[in-house]
Amino acid sequence: MSINWDKEIKSALRLLQQSNPNIQEAIVHLESILKQNAMLSSTDRVLVMDDNLDMLELLQEILTGHGYEVVCVSHGDAALEELRKQNETHFHAVILDLVVRNGKGGLSVLSEIRESYPHLTIVLSSGHPIEMELLKENKDFILLNKPWRTREILQILERGCAVSRENYFLSK
Fold this sequence. Notes:
This protein is an alpha/beta fold. Helix content is 55%, strand content 15%. The protein contains 7 helices and 5 strands; from the N terminus they run H-H-E-H-E-H-E-H-E-H-E-H. It has helices spanning 5-19, 24-40, 53-65, 76-86, 106-116, 129-135, 150-170; strands at 45-49, 69-73, 93-97, 121-126, 142-145. The model has no long low-confidence stretch (mean pLDDT 78).
């Protein structure tokens, strides 16, 4: 049985805080260390949002097969919720489908993700060439045209996750 040390430490910190409010500074420091540890972990974490379940399954299989930890969601609201739930340092990159049928697409949540999580690498993916052409000049994200090649997405994520770590530590 594997122990989730982050969860255990956070639980212990909450108990300490309840019993002695004067140790708040130490708790804040320890939480900061936990965040940095998550960013330094050897496993890059990627959040994938796409309304095509086959695409989610394929990306999950490819990325986990190459050592990434992957969380998949089917619309923008779920992506935002997952980011909030997992803490800002949990993910190194986000792949967003530009257009989804039910719910918010990647473009709808892009600005909120960029504002709330400025260190994240954001990849916008779409099979709609006209929309992709309109977004080509924007430097806030990386464009990935569907159909993509496995090598292409792996190269983007390798560079993107490294940049995310660097951006995170430069912002501290």
